[in-house]
Amino acid sequence: MIETLVAKRKRALKIYSFLKSAYPNSKCPLYYIAAHDLLVAIILSEHSTYEQVNIVTKTLFKKYHSLKDFAYCNIGSLAEDIHSTGNQNEKAEKIKQACLIIIDQHNGVVPYSLGDLLGLPGIGRETAKCIMGEIYNIPTIVIDTRMVRIMKLLGLTKSNDPKKIESDIMGAFEKKVWLKLSHLINDHGRAVCVERIPHCKACVINQLCPSSYV
Predict the structure, then answer these.
(1) What letter would DSSP give residue 195?
(2) 64-79, pLDDT tens digit by residue?
(3) Where are the domains of the chain?
């Protein structure tokens, strides 16, 4: 049976409501204080876990307080400070260059437009949207692997194209919940709807999921 858009939106509203109740403290998994901190944390998270990045940044942000601290740092020292996140030399270079660009081209303010953010080393489309939503409250949905997998399981998209997936999700959920939804799905994918062995019996949205084993 084909689900109408109206029915899909009603189901999406219930999905969001149940997930929000299950994860009331859901938020960006990366620790940051200022906008440039989030930028640095995002660069560090490439091929590393959020947990490891947060361990590093809790100390890192006490040493490097400002954008200028990162922009004009000794790159060797920075690489040493972030070595446990992996690829430390490459990441240190990206952090330094990104911060220099922000100072030279954006008056020392982390940009809010997708185009400008994509001009920074180490920032891709989805991580740029994370900054736009988290720092500037611009409605965005981060299309990462968990979002794609869970939205397909929920039958809210069938596409493999990130832009089409994004369009499908935006069409199902209200704009005001897009960013929060990204965090909720991330938490749910880590805690219950894990890739190898989804815990459907413990899932708060199993009755709304056509892929549920329950």
Answers:
(1) S
(2) 999 999 999 999 999 9
(3) 5-27+141-208, 35-136
Task: Band the pLDDT of 160: cuts 50, 70, 90.
Answer: confident
pLDDT of 1 above 70: no
* Measured distance CA(89)–CA(28) in Å, rounded: 26
Round to whole Å and give the CA distance between 52 and 87. 13
User: What residues have CB less than 8 Å from 20, skipping those under 6 apart?
Assistant: 26, 180, 184
Q: 0.85 cut: is pTM over it?
A: yes
| Cβ-based neighbours of 54, under 8 Å, separated by 6 or more | 29, 30, 31, 41
Whether the CA torsion 66, 53, 48, 92 is positive or negative: it is: positive
DSSP H/E element including 41: helix 35-44
Domain 35-136 sits in which CATH superfamily?
Hypothetical protein; domain 2 (1.10.340.30)
At CA 138, angle to CA 137 and CA 143, rounded to 5? 110
CATH class of 5-27+141-208: mainly alpha
The 10 Å CB-count burial string (b at 16+, else e) for 163-189 is: eebbebbeebbeeebbbbbbbbbbbbb
Spatial CA neighbour of 166 closest among 93, 114, 90, 88: 114
